[in-house]
Design brief:
9 strands, 22% strand, three-stranded antiparallel beta sheet, alpha/beta, Rossmann fold, globular, single chain, six-stranded parallel beta sheet, 239 residues, Alpha/beta hydrolase
Amino acid sequence: MNEQTPTVVLVHGAFADSSSWNGVVERLQSHDYSVVAAANPLRGLASDADYVRQLVASIEGPVVLVGHSYGGAVISSAAKGLDKVKALVFVAAFMPEKGESALDIAGMFPGSTLGEALRPVPITLPDGSRTVDLYIEKSRFPHQFAADVPKETAAIMAATQRPVTNAALAEAASAAAWKEIPSWVLVATEDLNIPPQVQTFMAERADATSVSVTASHAVCVSRPVDVARLINEAAQAIT
């Protein structure tokens, strides 16, 4: 890779953590990409996007910013006005218009069964305010999130999932960077969190380069080769 090869920044979504990118990271690093898998706080869309924005700003050279699931909404807000972000890649991810929330988008078309699989946990914060953390019920996690992942791996993912706040999913996006930055989309056709019809609608609305893969919402885990291939395609297109 030459000195203009972009750094790939990966942003996980709700009910996952940075390790969900492990297979993708391995393949990207084998092609000499510098990769950073960000720890998405999952606390609020604006604050999560600001966190990712500051991380990206600290990286020298061009960046390909990649988001999975709710992470797509985060990267779309985080990349607004960041000249170093040359491409956006949305992997079974939300691509909100300004003013839209993840919850708004998920309900545009039928097919999501996420709501009935959630376990809410009320949390009191140090300042006395309250929030609600959302988990996927462990017993329902494999089918809901990772139906094409080996059962043992899905069980580990269920145990290590990181919760997202209800407020983060309901918070409206302040920006839609996909309107200004070339975008690539991977549609997971067996997704039970974000229905494939929703993913296709967003890709077409953004006039993004799109591919479809037969996979669950956990496509980063089950189909890392396909995910890495699309990221490489985006990176090659901007260099």
